[in-house]
Input
Amino acid sequence: MSNSMTKLKTSLLSALIVLGFATQGDHAHASATETLTVAGGCFWCVEADFEAVQGVSEVVSGYTGGTTRNPTYKDVTRGGTGHYEAVQIIYDPGKVTRPQLLSMFLRSVDVTDAGGQFCDRGDSYRTAIFANGHAAEDAKQAIAQAQQELGQKIVTPILPLQTFYTAEDYHQNYYKGDDLQITRFGIKDQSEAYKRYRSACGRDARVRQLWGDAAPFAKSN
Output
């Protein structure tokens, strides 16, 4: 075999090895993320809050906790499906931990309200943490700590993980969309309509009332 052919094979082998390591690195990076599923009332608001957290790569709005397969937004808000408006928080545990996210979640909702959240009433707007195993244990500890700090009973339950159905495309990243919407405030672009809704619904005002400076996301008026 000629020297040139040997060099070519060596170069190809080296390239394949480098490619193999790079692929393994991609898989390792992909598998490094974890997911936390919570329900905190309007999923637009929970998505907006947690996408601002360092270490969170994505928040997906959807439905879980019910019995109807492939429910639509109308199905869920009409009632009877058992589903909650929920989100999946996808995060890097090397940058933010599950206990930290649980602590932030409990201090971003009204954990004393079992009938919905803020101006949104009904079963689909109730709060919940969906977790099994170690995640459920973390949730129990987070609730116990938050309840001690708050001095009031926390009614947010820990429920077993169930099938999560991704919500319709127009619900994803609603808070930063630019489509025009007809609202009670007139015709507004989506992001402005979201801000008006959040303020009118009293979400941040109630969270500040409960948690004060411990509320991680409540916006000042």
DSSP finds seven helices and ten strands in the chain.
